[in-house]
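Handout, section B. The chain below has 657 residues.
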Amino acid sequence: MPTRSRIIPLLACLALACLALFPGPLAAQDSGIQPILQAHREAIEKSSRKTIGAAIDAIASSGLPQAQAVLESWQAKEMYQRKSDGLFFRGTSGTGPAIRLFDYDSGAEIGELATAELDQVKPNSGVRGLIGAALVRFQLSDPDPDRRRAALDAIARDAEPSHLAALAASIAGEPDAAIKAAKERTLRLLTIRFSDAENERVAAIRSFKGDIGVDARATLNPLLATKVMFSATSPAGNVAHEVDPGGAELSVPAAHALMVTAGAAPAIPTAEERKAALIAHIDGGRVGGVPIGQLNTQTARDRAYAALAKDGLVPPFAPEMEAAEAVKTGRFWALYDEPSAAVTEAARETLGSISTTVAVNQALDLTLDALSLASIYFLAAIGLAITFGVMGVINMAHGEFIMMGAYTGYVIQQIIPDYTVSILVAIPVAFAVTFGAGVAMERLVIRWLYHRPLETLLATFGISIALQQLAKNIFGTQARPLTAPAWLDGAWQLNDVVGISYIRIAIFVLALVFLAIYLWIMNRTRLGLETRAVTQNPKMAGSMGINPDRVNMLTFGLGSGIAGIAGVAIGLFAKVTSELGQDYIVQSFMTVVVGGVGNVWGTLAGATLIGFLQKGIEWLNPSNTLAAQTYMIVFIIIFIQFRPRGIIALKGRAAGD
């Protein structure tokens, strides 16, 4: 058996091992984060948003490297308190119901304890928000750039005065240029809101002159917030201006209420209060000497009330001295909530420059929208510029060729699920389909109606209705999706004001491409030469060996094919229905007529004019797009009266045909 002298050292070693594994109060560290946690033990245990701030600040400002780990585990509900001694640890799931504990200061694993021996610290959402705000100062210098960006986003959502110093300290060591610029911008915004130095705030405000960022305006606008007060003389404080009652800033009742509150005017009894006073002073069937039976008009009731007021029985009231009269004797002032006059003056000047810059950018944005709309109209009208402008055929079914192209794109997407490939395939297929339909229409109908505009109009109008009904029978009345490729999603955003969708940019480029193709066909190919010859003098062209029927057929097919391609492009952002073409047929004819019949440059000019005109009218009256189209048509009718040949009229023999 072991001797007593050997047993005692053995027991001592076991005791030391137990203390190392489960340190008690005597083994608690005298330095590190644990003493801070113990100093705020009661607040941490209570976890109340009202009292926890001091504990969080103490941990965050301790300067200890383990402070971030403590806050993160606390926020994630991974902080546990040992019941036996009240010490705090980070805990994770252990074996079975046990919790594996880790020391905050050393990071070493302490061991496992049963959940019954631990209290989990569960901060509510409010406390977690405060912890998150405190963590921002650590995350701003985190090695992971994504976490630094996330910290900036957190500051933008819920900034606090404590973030100002932490953000300023993190800028010098920031290695990423983009993140550094974002930090500097955020620092200026926080300086405006939280700095105690007036000169720093003014300098930060002026640094945003001409800046159209939404965050800058959101920070500056509250500086110019005002409240209205009554005062017989100019009040102390940062006065914005004197206010006249009755305007948008201060209504007459509100002005009178301010005077009543200040004791500068008597309260005017309401009609209900006066009625209750009359009822309360009925005496022998009379009120103020007026028989009750005669109190059937407001004038009689006012007379009775005035009699009671004369006797001092009710508050005075005279109908001619209501609130509008009372407020004439008062003076009202708008005072800035911001006490510093230098700050509000700088904010006013900066917001003025921002308003100017925003107006310029809004004009640029409106210009881009107008160019986008003009490119859509040009793309829709370029085929009509051939069939109507060159051939002189009034084709009311041109919109249905646009609709056929859009439906062709939809069918191709059902066959080819890849949206990029399907669109690339749909463009030539739509051209082929509508080219064939145009050739068939020209051979079967149009060729018999040349130089008979009324019959052509009626015939093509009937074909238009038939094609719409055919589309309804095949595809139904519901809109069909023509989905753009993923690389066309979103918009090209120049700044917070100016932006244009990638689909609109693609259509603009497509319009320029087809302008180039049209010019090449008409000026550099045999078909273009023959088309121009047949257009100007079909008999002379025939005598030179040109077949006018063949040229007319191909030209009409070309115009119809281009309309089909336009349908694919338009279908990417418009609803693909049987009525799709009807939305563009009127604008297409107006584009060709206003620009100048027979001239593609005129068509381009007409599309630009109509696009800018429509967007301008919509900007003046944004709530009524139908009115915008109506005004546009009226303007074009007036325009044609003064320039019947359009913007760019043909010259020479063709102009007189």
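Note. The mean pLDDT is 84. Compare this with the example in section A.
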